[in-house]
Design goal:
Elements (H helix, E strand, L loop, with lengths): L4 E2 L1 H9 L4 E5 L3 H6 L6 E2 L2 H7 L10 E5 L5 H11 L5 E4 L2 H8 L8
Parallel strand pairs: 1-5, 2-3, 2-4, 4-5
């Protein structure tokens, strides 16, 4: 199964045009508390397989999974695909890249 990746600037473009996007943060609660994308849902990667049904996914919405550097999010996409959620992508290079290329106001760690 192919894992789709999306660049942070492309996520920002979708959000700015009002496209339906669900942002899923698969980091740990302390990481999420330090910095996160507005409106994102936190489900740590280790809990995703049993909690993915908590996601409210509108029709035609893209689920964008993100983490710190874009590694855990790849696994998150795989878990969601196995659960039957196909319109899903990993945000390449994670919130670190978002901080560097989209919004320098998001703290880096």
């Amino acid at each position: 199964m192919t894992i789709r990746q999306i660049l942070p600037r492309d996520v920002q473009a979708l959000l700015s045009t009002g496209s339906p996007v669900v942002l899923l943060d698969v980091r740990q609660p302390d990481e999420h508390a330090f910095c996160h994308l507005p409106g994102s849902v936190l489900i740590p990667l280790g809990e995703l397989a049993t909690r993915f049904e908590e996601l409210e996914i509108p029709d035609d919405a893209l689920v964008v999974v993100y983490c710190h550097h874009g590694v855990r999010s790849l696994s998150g996409v795989g878990i969601l695909q196995q659960a039957g959620i196909q319109n899903v992508a990993s945000m390449a290079s994670g919130i670190e890249a978002w901080s560097l290329t989209v919004d320098t106001g998001v703290p880096r760690y």
